[in-house]
Amino acid sequence: DSVITVQLTEEDKVEEDVVFYLVFTGSTVQHCTSTRKINPGSLETISPGHDCCETVKVALCASREGHPVLVVAEESFQFIQDEAYDAAQFLASCAGNQQALNFTRFLDRSRPPAADVDFLDEKVALAFRHLKLPAEWNVLGADQSLTENIPRETLMHFAVRLGLLRLTWFLLQQPGGRGALSIHNNEGATPVSLALERGYQKLHQLLTEEEAKEPDSWSTLSHTVHSGDYSVKHHRGLDVYMLTAEA
Question: What residue stretch is flagged as signal peptide (predicted)?
Answer without folding.
Answer: none
